[in-house]
Each structure stands twice: as C-alpha cells, then as structure tokens.
Amino acid sequence: MITKRIIPCLDVKDGKVVKGIQFKNHQVVGSILDLAEKYSNDGADELVFYDISASTKGSIVEKNWISKIADVVNIPFCVAGGIKSVEDARQILNLGADKISINTPAIDNPDLIYDLSNEFGSQCVVIGMDVKYIGDQAFIFAKTGSEKTSHSTNLNAKDWLIRVQELGAGEVVVNAMGNDGVKSGYSIELLNSLEDICSIPMIASGGAGGPRDFVNVFEKTNVDGTLAASIFHRNEYSIKEIKESLKANSINIRI
Amino acid sequence: MTVAIVDCGGANLRSVQRAIELRDQKAIITRNKSDISKASFVILPGVGSAKSVMNSLESNELIEIIKNLTKPVLGICIGMHVLFDRSEEHDTKCMEIISGDIKKFDSMLNLKIPQMGWNKVSFLLENTKKLDNYYYFANSYYSQIYENTLASAEYGHPFAAAVQKDNFIGCQFHPEKSSSAGIEFLDYFLSIN
C-alpha cells in the first residue's frame, strides 16, 4: 500500500528560502538548491516550493530556479505562487516541476482548476487551502503570502473542498493558519472535519513541532502526507528522525 | 549509444532526460522518425492523458515505427498505458503491443484517486528481485495483473507496477522521480540488449 509522505515546504521569497510565524516576520533560512538537495538526500518524499513574493505582487514566479531544482533532485516537487493561467502552469511544468499548486487564483477563477486538470491531468493540480476558524466555522483565506493582503473569503472550507474536487483537483493541502509556525501540532479537528468529503489525497500543513505531532496526525486522521517547514529548516529534527519515529509507531512510510 | 525520449506533447520531458544523463548516456528529446530509428533505446515518457499521447504519436506518424521496434522500449506511466490495447481514459484505442486494457481505480473501494506517492513494488522474476523498492506513483488509471506483469504493487488490490513483453517494458511508476530506486530501474532498462 502507498506510504504516508513527509514533505518539507520551502517558502521562497526573492530567490531565498524564508520562514515566518503565522505568515509574518520572514527570516532567510537558506539557499533553495542547498536545502532541496539536502532534503532529497535525507529521504523527503516530495518537496513543495511556495513563492510567497509572487502571488501578492501579482507577478508570476521567478522561474530560473525551477529547472535548477529539477537538475539536483530526483523526487517529485510542486511549485506554487502566482500561477493564474494554463500557460503559467505549462511553463513551470516544462521547467521540471511535477505539480503546480494554486490558492488565490483558484478562488478568483474556479474554472482554472478545470482547465489545468483537463490540460495536464488531475495529478498535476494541487489546491492550497488556507483555513482559519472564525467562531466555529472554518473559512478559506486568500492572498495569505503577506499580512497586509491576507483576508477571509466567504467560502466555507467544506464547500470549497467539494467544489475543487468537482472541478478536477488532484490533491489538496489543508493549511491551518492558526497553527502555522507555532509548533502546537497539526489541526486534527479541522482535518477530520474535511476527511469524509475528500476523495483525493489530502496533505496536512501548519503546526509541526516534533515527531509526536507527525505520529499524532497519522494516527488520528486519514491524511496522506504532512507538510513541515521550520523544524527541518532549523535542524531541530531531521526527516530521518521523523520517519524513524513514525516507523516505530507502525505508520507505513518509506525508509 | 543514444536514448531517444519521444516528445508526446506532455510536460516534464527534461526530468527523464536528466535521469538518463545521470547514467552517462546521451539522451535526446525528439519526435523525429530517424532519431527514433537510430537510437539504441527508446523511452515514451508519460504525462498528460492516453488520448493526448496517442494523438501526438499519430500526428507525428510514429505508431507503426514504435510498434515495429526491436530495440528496448520503455513506456513510463501513460507511456506504459499506450502499449496496451485500450485505455478507459477517454476510451482510447492504444498501440496493441501488450494485450490487456487500462482501467480506472474504483472510487467505490474508498481509494483516494489519483494514487499519489511512494508505493512498495515487488518484482516477480528472480533476476529482477533486486529492484524491489519504493517507487513514486501518480496515476488514476492502472493495468491489472496480466501475463506480461514484471512487477506488482497494491492499491486497494494488486495492480501491475511494471510489465514486459519482449523488448517492450512499461512502468506505472516514475523512475525519473523515484530517487535511487528509479536510477537502478533505469539501469536495468539500459542493460537490456
């Protein structure tokens, strides 16, 4: 059976990997290629690159680093940030990315999901959902790359998840914004509330602080993989350590 | 020795080329008949749909050429699907090199579709057992276990992870994205003569 995936997430800003806390105060943590190669060698199952400078400025991602990543890693990787059209996506896939992930442009133009899936296959099309509870309702947020532009939409997380699947999305990354960078664990409640309406792979994001959080999310939810950033970037835990801990808890992973 | 990677219109040909180059082989991306005839190995990479790949092969008049090749040919993912008789994906007639049909994973089995990630692959023949490993998959359609199965994996039920008939090999996984396991599989392909 298919293994659970551990996916380091690299937020890219102006060509460097950065990490903020709840989308603010970004600090440079390293070079894109060094980290990509290191994580690939450490046993990452996949990599995600979010160009957080792109989607808020309205420009397409700076693309030259994508083909360089394709030259140094031979595991799949996904690129997100400012992809607004089939042509934007084609360029990124042709540079060597395996998937593209869209968030705000999908909210602005849901038909883009259908067009991308039709053109490249659903396995290429990842929808990023930035979710925050307002009261007891989970809402989708847009333009989350910067504190100034981040705002709630009137989309309920469940309704949006149903919609993106109908339009042909092949995977969804559920990012619990309240948990991002604070290392309090993944949002089990949110993930479980979405699970029974999700028939495509679901990836948990936001809140990983240590091995226990990974074990917890795989034991208590049915997610297919987890995204994590700071704990890897700051060398608090290696991917190997996380995987060994998962294996010790009988979670099916690739070691 | 040159490896011809057939440009079927899909994205991400570069990753396949790069993986071959890592093995110190020359790899060209082409849709030219004479390049394909002259190459020592031919790869049909696969991103897109069975229909788009078949349309591309047809419009470049490559179908008869590929069917008649006697050198090693590797179809990856959709490139494997088009070796079969038919694919359920847009009900596409394929090249009929390997008998059997490509089906869609059944959502009634409570499976997430597409299958996405690393799955354990078991090779069936003694001389290929050393290739047993985790490989990267991203597919909604699959081949059942037919007589030409070279390796199997499980997703709700067993399916063909790799197939071989004479000089034609197909793999459902993406060796170019499967880390060191994928490189070893490509070595196996490149060692066939």
What can you tell me about this protein's structure?
Chain A has 255 residues and is an alpha/beta fold. Chain A has helices at residues 32-41, 54-57, 64-72, 86-94, 104-108, 111-120, 157-166, 188-195, 211-220, 230-233, 239-248; strands at residues 5-13, 16-21, 24-31, 47-51, 77-80, 99-102, 125-134, 137-142, 151-156, 171-176, 202-205, 225-228. Chain A has one domain (5-248): Aldolase class I (TIM Barrel), CATH 3.20.20. Chain A contains 11 helices and 12 strands. Chain A has an 8-stranded parallel beta barrel, surrounded by 6 helices. The model of chain A has no long low-confidence stretch (mean pLDDT 89). By secondary structure, chain B is an alpha/beta fold. Chain B has a single domain, classed as Rossmann fold (3-Layer(aba) Sandwich), CATH 3.40.50.880. Chain B has 6 helices and 13 strands. Chain B has helices spanning 13-21, 33-38, 50-59, 63-67, 78-81, 179-190; strands spanning 2-6, 26-30, 41-44, 73-76, 86-87, 92-93, 101-104, 115-123, 133-139, 141-143, 149-154, 158-165, 168-171. In chain B, a hairpin with a 3-residue loop joins strand 11 and strand 12 (158-165). Chains A and B meet through helix 3 and helix 4 of A and helix 1, strand 8, strand 9 and helix 6 of B.
